[in-house]
Every structure is written in structure tokens, then in C-alpha cells.
Amino acid sequence: MTHSKIIGTGASVPEKVLTNSDLEEFLDTSDEWISTRTGIKERRVSVNESAVDLSEGAANEAIKAAGLTPDDIDLIIVGTVTPDMSFPSTACFLQERLGVRPSVPAFDVSAACSGFLFALDTADKYIVSGAAEKVLVVGVDIFSRIVDWKDRATCVLFGDGAGAVVLSKSSDKGEGLLSSNIHSDGSLWRSLFAPGATAYNPFKPDSGEDTNPYVQMHGGETFKLAVKTIAAACNEALMAAGLKSEDVSILIPHQANERIITAVAKRLGLTDSQVCINIDRYGNTSAGSIPIALDEVVRGGRVKSGDILLFVSFGGGLTWASTLVKW
Ligand code: UT7
Fold first, then answer.
1. Number of domains within the chain
2. CA angle, corner 143, sides to 142 and 145, nearest 5?
3. CA of 283 relative to ligand 1 center, distance in Å
4. Could you tell me if 150 and 201 lie in one domain?
5. Whose CA is nearest to atom 8 of ligand 1?
6. What is the per-residue pLDDT across 118-143, written as a single tens digit (0 to 9) for each?
């Protein structure tokens, strides 16, 4: 039976750093409120970088780390809800930038903060079915373009960035993706959403007038749902692979709020050294958060061969997902 394994990682974030003190200059907020409620100290915001620019930087690193060239890639999947254009997809732009062979399929998946794990799950299914062998999987979001910079309840939470992996066919059953689970509950979409430009209907001129196109979130409600759902998703991945939380070498969770991450870690009985947190430097980068954190622990030498990595996400949709990987 064919399996899939991650053979290269990469990440790319915009140059501009926006600190909590910078936000204090134009918002009724404070470093103290943001740090204690979320764990965020600063985030990156894109001035000149587009979604495909960030994706390209992350993808080039991942392909190089895998010891491959763009010619080896036979599928590109990008998780994003902030593409540069409605169409073509970010994946098609990326195909041109990298020089990946024409005719290789390239498409985006939309699952907000779960976008990377939904894309990784899709890539895994392509590999297991025999339809692809080397898949470039990217998670990228530029929330600085879809938050209302006058709304302190949301804009302080997000940052921009991209991460990428190359997922490859493997015949060694004991390594690679041990379990991958994706879920959605559309009845809960009102907890977290962004209407965007499509809220406006030119044939019904008053339809978009009062519509706020920006990210809107019921923070407290989303927080409670996130802790419960993320803990359950972690258990689902572990049970499917016949493992326990003590077997986890590193939990790499979506970085939405440090308090959510520590509450989940406590429920699972994980120690600080078993959990990856980088929200202090990047904020919530949506689909970028898990692959950026993964690249950081891999390049930082925190991951050894045989380690068990647990990825878990939660976001708009609502969507949630978990992936268990033996490195
Ligand atoms: O990635 C997708 C999933 N996202 C999440 O899971 C995020 C989940 N939610 C959260 O992380 C938290 O709910 C927030 C960080 C968004 C908010 O934290 P909270 O402890 O739930 O605060 P709150 O919304 O209950 O607001 C408490 C107070 C309010 O003032 P009053 O009404 O008590 O006077 C807010 O107006 O804090 C006020 N507030 C702020 N004050 C300073 C809200 N935002 C800010 C701000 N600066 N930026």
C-alpha cells in the first residue's frame, strides 16, 4: 500500500513587522491587552508581497529542501482564502512562477485557517490513489487585506505569511502520514466569516450598501468551540493511529490564540516542550500558520527521524482538521 510523507518544508513572511506598540498609535488598544489575551507581540504585514510572492518563496525552499526541482512536481494545491485574484487560482500563478510543467494540475482549496491541512489531506489522497507522486502543498493568507484596520476586536489578531511542504509517495508503511482527518460544520459559519466583495449585487443596488466586507468574528463563542474541537481532533488523529498523547513529540497547532493552545495542551496532558508556539512573532496567519511553524521546528533542529508530529487546525466554515505524521 502506498503512503505519503513530507520530504521538504519552507516558509516565507513579509518584510514589514507591525508590533503591538505600532497598533497603539492608531487603535484604542494596548500591548498589554493583546499580549495577555492572545500571546501576540508582533505580526508581519504585506506591503509589496502578494499571495503568490509569499507562496513562491515558501515553495522554492520546500522543493530545494526535498532535493527536487520544479520539474518533479506533478500536482500543486494551495490552501488560501485571500488569493491575489478571484481567478486564476493562486496555484496556477504559482505554477507559472516556479516553471512547473504545463498540464500539471494546480488548484486552491478554501477552508480558512484549516486550508493547509485540507490541502495536505487532498494531496495525501491523490498520492494514496496513485494519481500523483510529488505534490507541492502551500498554505498562504494575507489577512491584512481583509480585516478592518479600525476594528480592534479582529485586526490585532492576524498576520500574513506562507508555508509549504513537498509531499511524496513512500512505500514504507511505518513513516509519513499516519492519519489525516478533515471536518466541516456549515451551520456554524456565523462564528467567523468575511463577506468580501461578492456581497454586492449590481442588479439589487442596495444589497451591498450596509454590508461589512471585512472579517467578522464572535470571539468568545469561537474561543470555546476552538478549545473543545481542537482537543477532540487531536484525539481523533491519535486514536486512528493507535497512539496516545504521550507518544507525541511535537504538537504543531494552528496559531489563533496562545490561551487556546495552552488549554488544549493541558487537556491532552502535554508539556511545554511538546508544543510549538510562534504566535508571539506572527499572529494568526490563517492557512500559513501550521506550515510556517513546521518549517521553523524542522530548520531549528527540533525534529528527529522517528518523531511523532501532530498538526491540528480550526477556522472559518467552520472547519477543523488533524494530521499525525511520523517524521
Ligand atoms: O483562527 C480562527 C479561530 N479563531 C479563534 O479561535 C479566535 C478565538 N477567540 C479569541 O481568541 C478571543 O475571543 C479574542 C482574543 C478574540 C478576544 O478575547 P476575549 O478574552 O474573548 O475578549 P472579549 O472579546 O470578551 O473582549 C473583552 C473586552 C471587551 O471590552 P468590554 O466589553 O469588556 O468593556 C472588548 O471591547 O476587551 C475589549 N477589546 C479590546 N481591548 C483592547 C476587544 N479587543 C480589544 C483590543 N484592545 N484589541
1. 2
2. 85
3. 14
4. no
5. 223
6. 999 999 999 999 999 999 999 999 99
